[in-house]
Design brief:
2 helices, mainly alpha
């Protein structure tokens, strides 16, 4: 007694060989999928590492900007205190000197 598709010869051999073709194709597709998943995994790990590095850099920049803001705030306070006095002539000379220094630096950088 033979069951349909399980006997030797006839259409049973065709069904069994067709099954193995599908199985081989599935294994091939499975290997391709496995390679894609491993590539995505390594890419996501690299992205995570880069995000951590960028966050650390942003935190460092935030700290630097905070310290620079404090320094500039103190300097502005001193300039305001200086401008309240009767030393406006000294303040004008100081501003002209700053403009001169910036102009010389700009000229020097542009010639490089």
């Amino acid at each position: 007694m033979r069951r349909a598709g399980l006997g030797e010869g006839g259409s049973g051999g065709y069904v069994a060989s067709g099954y193995s073709v599908y199985e081989e194709e599935n294994e091939h597709l499975q290997e391709g999928l496995r390679a894609k998943v491993s590539a995505l995994k390594s890419l996501s790990i690299d992205i995570g590492t880069e995000v951590k590095y960028q966050n650390k850099m942003l935190d460092d920049m935030d700290t630097d900007f905070d310290s620079t803001g404090g320094l500039l705030g103190a300097t502005i306070g001193r300039v305001k205190r200086l401008s309240r006095g009767s030393q406006t002539k000294l303040l004008c000379y100081m501003l002209l000197f700053c403009f001169f220094v910036f102009f010389v630096l700009y000229w020097y950088i542009k010639l490089r």
